[in-house]
Amino acid sequence: MSDYYTVLGVARDASPDEIKRAYRKLARELHPDVNPDASAQERFKTVTLAYEVLSDPDKRQMFDSGGDPLRGFNGGGGQGFDFGDIMNAFFGGNQQRGPRTRARRGQDALIRIQISLADAVFGAKRDLVVDTATLCGTCKGSGAAAGSEQVTCVMCRGRGELQQMQRSFLGQVMTSRPCPQCHGFGTTIPHPCTECAGDGRVRTRRIITIAVPPGVDTGTRIQLAGEGEVGPNGGPSGDLFVEIAVQADPTFERRGDDLHCEVSVPMTAAALGTRTTITSLDGPIEIEIKPGTQPGDELTVRGKGAARLRSSGRGDLYVHLTVSTPTKLDAQQTDLLRRLADLRKETTQQVTQTPGGQSGGIFSKVKGAFGPK
To answer: Torsion-angle region of residue 77: left (phi > 0), alpha (psi -120 to 50) or beta?
Structure first.
């Protein structure tokens, strides 16, 4: 009998992880798919047998005490081992063994809703109608009809898998596959619930009230834990995600946490200055138009923008001013404007052209009015 520690090149007090790493390293070098040499195949069998013994606590203890670790396993002295365990060590996998539970987590759900700009700024409560899977009220998630229950699968005897011994160049290889009768669950449902057809859940329409927090914007997602679909056979519910779309507002444009609007001022009011009331999302507010206001000037109203999501405070409201020039004048109005022009000594010959990039020009004001804030 070989010294399996020497075969794997590990110390006698090596940990299970050290043994696995040593086997994986040798298996990658000697596996027939990598090294077709006949001597490598024979060595691969020996290395695999050494791993089978040293990775099993009972076999390793028997080997350390001088006994035959293979006596009593698969006919005594035979090279029988579970191919799934060897593949786990070779590929680093972690295959689930035994029956799997019928209860699984439900799927997440996504709903898209539209809200007004005011609701996005201040927050709101909305009732959502959700069509989703809920726990079956008849079988309470078991999937079995009233008066019946799940029974142990007769084909796999509750193991959820079938094993088969095959001969290969590795010796006798034990392979496992999910039971075709119970599909790996280990149990069957002879009499499924007529309400849910054995799934343990049914489709139901329900109403959920959600709180839209202040400051949301288009694309914001609100997560409602446990409000998604109930899992099969009473499994935990998934989550519900609500994606926000903010409707365009006829008066205000949102840029980040700030709001922007445009106010048209009569030429005389722009020249003389005035105070006027405008509408904001908070209600009417008074603004001051300073004398000599020019087209493209802007006023800032602090704290009247959108709320900052997941933070305190609000953005600002920017009021962009335009100056409206009268287009239809009667004779008296025309005469007054001519007299004003004479008093200011303004003539058409005094019209000047300013370069577009010059600071303070109309182009720079327009750029500042509609550029990022």
So the answer is: left
Per-residue model confidence as pLDDT tens digits over 35-86: 778 787 788 888 888 888 888 887 888 888 777 776 544 444 444 444 455 5
Which helix (H) or strand (E) segment holds residue 117: the answer is: helix 117-122
**Low-confidence winner among 34-43, 191-200, 251-260, 364-373 (lowest mean pLDDT):** 364-373
User: Which 3 state secondary structure label does DSSP give 127?
Assistant: strand
Compute the 3-state secondary structure of the chain and give helix, strand, coil in percent, each to the nearest 5: 25, 30, 45
- Identify how many contiguous H helices and E strands the chain contains and give both numbers: 9, 16
Amino acid at 92: G
How far apart are the C-alpha atoms of 294 and 157, rounded to whole Å? Answer: 88
The domains found in the chain, sorted by start residue, are 4-91 (1.10.287.110), 109-149+189-246 (2.60.260.20), 253-370 (2.60.260.20)
Task: Write the single-letter amino acid at 45.
Answer: K
Query: Which pTM value belongs to this model?
Result: 0.61
Note the pLDDT tens digit of each residue in 181-240: 998 999 999 999 999 999 999 999 999 999 999 999 999 999 999 999 999 988 899 999
| Dihedral Cα 236, 238, 239, 241, nearest 10 deg | -160
The Cα–Cα gap between 285 and 302 comes to: 12
- Asked if the model's pLDDT at residue 297 lies above 60, the reply is yes
Q: Cα dihedral angle (344, 349, 354, 359), rounded to 10 degrees?
A: -10
> CA-to-CA distance for 267 and 265, rounded, in angstroms?
6
CB 24 within 8 A of CB 89: yes
Token look-up 């009011």 returns 269
